[in-house]
Design a protein that fits this description.
With about 250 residues, the protein is α/β, with parallel strands linked by helices. The protein has seven helices and twelve strands. The chain has a seven-stranded mixed beta sheet, with helices on both faces. Strands 3-2-1-4-5 form a five-stranded mixed beta sheet, sandwiched between helices. Strand 11, helix 6 and strand 12 form a beta-alpha-beta unit. The longest helix has 28 residues. The radius of gyration is 19 Å and the shape is globular. The protein starts with a strand and ends with a helix.
Length: about 250
């Protein structure tokens, strides 16, 4: 049975999994000073996959490093996916379809495979995206806002007297500055996501199923008022779908 290696090169880290009779979670790689060395440690123990496919929002340097590693070690060409006008039952209504982030596109494709009707995808990474998919499979648009770490770093850099100590976000009645920052960032992002989902549901004229993914999904999940389904590997599921569609074309 053939095995594929699929990757999601995000802004802050690279997530990977193996696709063989389903998706087998792999791990997370930090870019660091030597991404090639991280690839050595993660992938040299693996058997040679049939294909290696990726989506990337990390810029060309990291994806080029990955492509070179895959060619050198396995003599394979990296399959690089980006957003298209239409693919796997999803129609891209962006004014310029190619400008939609490849990770967002992959997540929408995975959502379409999971949900027969309208859906919203909330991806909580370095940036948070909330994207709406109608019942026909048309991507109706979405929003991008800073994630937890970006919000916190912006506040620390821009406000006098607020320092970098880690805090706890257990209450909106915080009694230390560090706790106040932690709670303010977490609750404000959760509130924004809920409001955006309200607006998107109204625009869709339906009650969409909400799929939650990304590195900070677990932190935000308890605070969201909308019912959501947690799907940790949604982007990678989309990459698997795109690889299958290429093979069938």
């Amino acid at each position: 049975m053939s095995m594929n290696l699929v990757l999601d090169l995000g802004n802050s880290r690279c997530k990977w999994a193996l696709a063989v009779a389903g998706l087998k979670p792999g791990g997370v790689l930090a870019y660091g000073d030597d991404f090639a060395r991280a690839l050595d440690r993660a992938f040299e123990p693996l058997a040679r996959p049939a294909q290696v496919a990726a989506v990337s929002v990390a810029g060309t340097a990291h994806s080029d490093t990955l492509a070179q590693w895959v060619k050198r070690h396995w003599n394979l060409d990296l399959m690089r996916f980006s957003a298209r006008a239409a693919q796997c039952g999803v129609t891209n209504t962006y004014k310029d379809p190619a400008q939609l982030g490849a990770d967002r596109w992959a997540a929408l494709i995975a959502a379409r495979a999971r949900v027969p009707g309208a859906a919203c995808v909330v991806d909580c990474g370095t940036a948070v995206t909330v994207d709406a998919l109608d019942a026909s499979g048309a991507f109706r648009g979405g929003v991008i806002l800073p994630g937890l770490a970006l919000m916190r770093s912006s506040l620390l850099q821009g406000a006098q007297g607020i320092h970098a100590a880690a805090g706890h976000a257990g209450s909106c009645l915080a009694r230390t500055t560090a706790d106040a920052v932690a709670a303010g960032v977490l609750y404000s992002l959760a509130g924004a996501i809920d409001r955006i989902l309200d607006e998107q549901a109204a625009a869709l004229g339906a009650s969409p199923q909400v799929l939650l993914t990304g590195g900070d999904a677990q932190a935000l999940l308890p605070l969201l008022r909308h019912a959501v389904s947690l799907v940790p590997d949604l982007v990678l599921e989309g990459v698997v779908r795109m690889v299958s569609a290429e093979g069938a074309a």
